[in-house]
Amino acid sequence: MAISSGTSRVDLATWDPENETTWDSRFVWRTLWITTYNLTLAFCAWYLVSAIALRPCARTCVASTSTTTATSGSPRPSG
């Protein structure tokens, strides 16, 4: 991994993963933390969207079931 002189930027265009001398431990750990954080946020967003998407359907299904029960003449349980 070539580091420009005078800056702390890593040039990934010339990085060779097979060459151990181009590995910068600080860069690798920083990349690992950023990737892990982003994947965790992506999973949370995916999970929340899937959980929220089911809510309106559940309300509609319950409402249609209670309306059918109320109009069929059978008593609804209280509570």
Describe this structure in words.
This protein has one helix at about 25-70; strands at about 1-5, 10. The radius of gyration is 28 Å and the shape is rod-shaped. Strands 1-2 form a two-stranded antiparallel ribbon. The protein is about 60% helix and about 5% strand. With about 80 residues, the chain is mainly α. The chain has a domain at about 1-50.
How are the SSEs ordered, and which strands pair?
Layout: E1 2-3, E2 10-11, H1 25-72
Antiparallel strand pairs: 1-2
Based on the model shown, name its key terms:
1 helix, mainly alpha, 79 residues
Largest sheet: 2 strands, antiparallel
Number of strands: 2
**Global outline:** rod-shaped
Strand content: 5-15%
Low-confidence stretches: none
Sketch the topology as an H/E string, one letter per element.
EEH
Helical content class? 55-70%
Query: What's the end-to-end separation, in Å?
Result: 68 Å
Strand arrangement across the biggest beta sheet: 1-2
The DSSP helix count reads 1
